[in-house]
Design brief:
Elements lengths: L5 H16 L2 H26 L5 E6 L16 E6 L3 H9 L5 E4 L2 E2 L2 E2 L3 E4 L5 H21 L5 H8 L8 E3 L2 E3 L2 H35 L2 H5 L5 H38 L9 H7 L2 H14 L7 H29 L7 H16 L1 H6 L4 H8 L4 H8 L6 H29 L9 H9 L1
Parallel strand pairs: 1-2, 1-3
Antiparallel strand pairs: 3-6, 4-5, 7-8
Helix pairs in contact: 1-8, 2-8, 6-8, 6-11, 6-12, 6-15, 8-11, 11-12, 11-15, 11-16, 14-15, 16-17
């Protein structure tokens, strides 16, 4: 390993940082970043809540069921009932302004095989809700026709809801839906940032190589110093954006907490709050209580610290290879054959995110969180559900050791390809440079 000048690395990093922050794209990303990230989280939820407003469904009650016996209560859906046979019901439906026709198809007050006919597609949420209510009706009819004690009937017909909780150590963890959203959000962020800043390093190296600036720099700066400076310079750019985003988030969070006095809705104060408001507003207060307590068993500070650690090491790992690719080729078009194999592990871990959310303690989830090329995404998906400190430390150590090895390998490719022009490079050729 040649002698490395830290001062020269700092100078290259400073140059990269100043060039990046002076671009308009940096300003726009810094300002619009929080807005875009909020939209990624809010818009899908909003679309999922308001999927099909003002839907009109016609129910053909040809199962000889009294209209007062079964009633469909589906939010934002207008339901009407008719008592025709299926053929007549279809004819009525086609000539009406209804969006769908539900034929219950049964006999002697028993629904056998209901069918939903629609003029356009009907959302899965609506179909699931109709299925749920039909099955509830069927179970209620069965219970009512059984000759048993009234108290037993009442217990059988009472609604039971599952509340998902699991225990990690001595702490009860719940809020599964919130943890799913949190884990997936962190996976999206770290995947997006590693790819974005890694590509920025590659393009920077490629631009300097194409303009022959690198030939002038090579006379006074070693290739490894140049590569390290570029990587750390872009890292400083990302940290600057992170700090600005964190500052904005803290300001907005404090404003919201002060403006709406959210502390009133914590578990410690909710009873006192309920006693001071009218019964109409108590339901809303309980909803606010559930929202405020979503993060009660999650250490946000720990998640932020681990997110930064995994981003830093993961970024340095991938950025070193991106820099080597930029030095080895002559144009951005030539990079395409290398980018997919390089980012494939990260992409696979992102595709496995849904499985990890459902099975955070499965063997494949644990393996993905320990493999260095997938751990930045996989571990962050698992963190909200509780991961032992041993697994976290082991994952970070493996990731760091891999980073050190990647710097050595990438520096060899970088040094060989930096001043090489006019030659098409293959993956096999890069492997020879890396291990010669």
């Amino acid at each position: 390993m040649p002698n490395i000048s830290v001062r020269k690395i700092v100078l290259v990093a400073q140059r990269e940082f100043l060039v990046a922050v002076r671009k308009k794209t940096f300003l726009w990303m810094t300002i619009l970043g929080p807005v875009l990230l909020s939209a990624i989280l809010v818009v899908p939820v909003w679309l999922g809540i308001d999927t099909q407003p003002n839907l009109k469904i016609l129910v053909c009650n040809n199962a000889i069921i009294n209209s007062d016996t079964i009633k469909f209560d589906v939010s934002k859906i207008d339901v009407s009932y008719i008592y025709f046979d299926t053929i007549q019901a279809k004819s009525t439906f086609i000539n009406s302004d209804y969006d769908a026709l539900l034929c219950l198809n049964g006999h002697n007050s028993t629904i056998i095989h209901p069918v939903l006919y629609s003029k356009n597609s009907v959302s899965s949420q609506v179909i699931d809700e109709l299925n749920y209510q039909i099955n509830n009706f069927k179970n209620r009819i069965i219970i009512e026709n059984i000759t048993i004690n009234a108290d037993i009937k009442s217990k059988l017909s009472s609604k039971i809801e599952i509340k998902n909780k699991f225990i990690f150590g001595n702490k009860h963890n719940s809020n599964t839906e919130f943890k799913n959203a949190l884990g997936l959000s962190m996976a999206v962020l770290i995947y997006f940032f590693i790819i974005m800043y890694g590509m920025q390093v590659m393009r920077g190296v490629l631009e300097e190589k194409s303009s022959r600036v690198v030939e002038v720099m090579a006379t006074s700066v070693k290739p490894l110093e140049m590569m390290s400076g570029k990587i750390f310079g872009i890292a400083c750019v990302s940290f600057t954006q992170f700090l600005i985003w964190i500052f904005i988030t803290i300001l907005v969070s404090n404003f919201v907490q002060t403006k709406f006095q959210l502390q009133r809705f914590s578990n410690e104060n909710i009873e006192k709050t309920l006693s001071k408001i009218n019964p109409i507003d108590q339901a809303k207060a309980l909803e606010m209580n559930s929202l405020v307590e979503l993060t009660s068993d999650i250490s946000i500070t720990k998640l932020v610290i681990l997110f930064i650690i995994y981003f830093v090491i993961g970024y340095l790992l991938y950025a070193s290879f991106f820099a080597a690719i930029g030095a080895a080729v002559d144009s951005e078009t030539d990079t395409q054959q290398f980018i997919l194999p390089l980012t494939l592990p990260l992409l696979l871990s992102f595709l496995f995110a849904q499985y990890i959310l459902q099975n955070p303690d499965a063997k494949i989830s644990i393996c993905l969180s320990l493999i260095p090329f997938t751990s930045p995404v996989a571990m962050l998906v698992r963190l909200p559900f509780g991961v032992s400190n041993f697994e976290i430390v082991l994952s970070i150590i493996i990731l760091f050791v891999t980073l050190c090895l990647s710097v050595v390998v990438s520096s060899k490719i970088y040094r060989t390809g930096l001043l090489l022009y006019g030659k098409k490079i293959s993956i096999i050729e890069l492997s020879r440079w890396a291990f010669k």
